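in:
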């Protein structure tokens, strides 16, 4: 059944849900999920491909679909990183396809958890696939296929094509000093981060404009995953890719600038991976980074720097000089609830 404001779920104000068409949300700590409307589309060969929509570049289309208005997505229209789709009787036919058949494999390294000893994505897209789709009208949607004949998205908790709903797992994060910045990873432009965060490996996303630029001229927005934070969850300070690898895939709790209530928001996150310096580790300064302001202070103090995995090149002044990792992670922000509603 199509979304309408009259049928929308009325969430409590404390839930702070950004996506109007969300049907249900579970805020269980480390097991959060969201139920979304499901749409039927067509793969290039005509087989069914069911997808969810989370953002639109046009305000009227966003309101009609009950999704987030993300004006920055318009920059992606016509770029090599987007996927032009056609409409057949109102049904989207995609130019690319996803293979959900691969088995995801992730294992920590022998000496340190990162780099991983194994990192194989559980889903791989062909070169024509991008979740950033351009309609014939020129409107850009963030539309992710979550089930087709090859299987399910790795973040799918439950999918019902009979009633057109999909329940998908969410990841935790920090923004503006507050935890529980819940977001949904759909696809990723590189294989290792796709495996780490249970996303589809979709290399085409890496051709979206532009890395290291976070203003209105870019479809992307910078954020900062942490590489080598504290690994032990018992401390309540765990964070980063090493913590994820050392603990069977727990949320890395990345650091974001802001959510969909800011006009510069984009679900296309330009990763600027940070790492604690050797001096910070030796001095016992490592802890959770909770905001961009916190990150700025730590960089200025010489405690945090660009991760060794980031390619050489100019730093992003908007992100305090951190270098872009040259990886796009498509992760729409779903909600940023008050801590009182999170079940721990």
């Amino acid at each position: 059944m199509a979304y309408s404001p009259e049928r929308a779920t009325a969430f409590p104000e404390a839930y702070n849900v950004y996506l109007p068409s969300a049907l249900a949300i579970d805020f269980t700590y480390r097991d959060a999920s969201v139920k979304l409307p499901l749409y039927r589309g067509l793969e290039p060969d005509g087989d069914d491909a069911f997808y969810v929509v989370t953002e639109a570049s046009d305000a009227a289309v966003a309101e009609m679909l009950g999704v987030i208005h993300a004006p920055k997505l318009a920059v992606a229209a016509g770029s090599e990183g987007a996927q032009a789709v056609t409409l057949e009787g109102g049904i989207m036919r995609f130019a690319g396809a996803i293979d959900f058949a691969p088995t995801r494999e992730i294992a920590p390294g022998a000496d340190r958890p990162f780099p991983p000893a194994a990192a194989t994505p559980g889903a791989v897209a062909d070169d024509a696939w991008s979740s950033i789709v351009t309609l014939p009208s020129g409107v850009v949607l963030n539309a992710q296929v979550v089930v087709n004949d090859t299987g399910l998205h790795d973040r799918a908790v439950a999918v019902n094509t009979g009633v057109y709903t999909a329940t998908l797992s969410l990841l935790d994060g920090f923004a503006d000093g507050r935890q529980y910045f819940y977001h949904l990873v759909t696809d990723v432009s590189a294989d290792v981060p796709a495996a780490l965060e249970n996303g589809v490996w979709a290399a085409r996303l890496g051709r979206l404009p532009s890395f290291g630029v976070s203003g209105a001229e870019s479809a992307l927005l910078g954020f900062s995953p942490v590489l080598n934070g504290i690994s032990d969850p018992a401390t309540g300070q765990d964070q980063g890719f090493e913590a994820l690898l050392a603990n069977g895939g727990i949320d890395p709790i990345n650091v974001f600038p802001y959510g969909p209530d800011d006009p510069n928001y984009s679900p296309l996150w330009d990763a600027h991976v940070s790492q604690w310096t050797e001096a910070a580790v030796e001095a016992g300064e490592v802890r959770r980074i909770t905001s961009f302001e916190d990150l700025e202070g730590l960089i200025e103090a010489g405690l945090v720097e660009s991760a060794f995995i980031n390619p050489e090149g100019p730093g992003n002044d908007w992100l305090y000089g951190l270098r872009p990792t040259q990886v796009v992670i498509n992760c729409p922000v779903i909600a940023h609830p008050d801590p009182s509603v999170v079940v721990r």
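note: Helices lie at 59-65, 191-196, 241-246, 278-282, 292-300.
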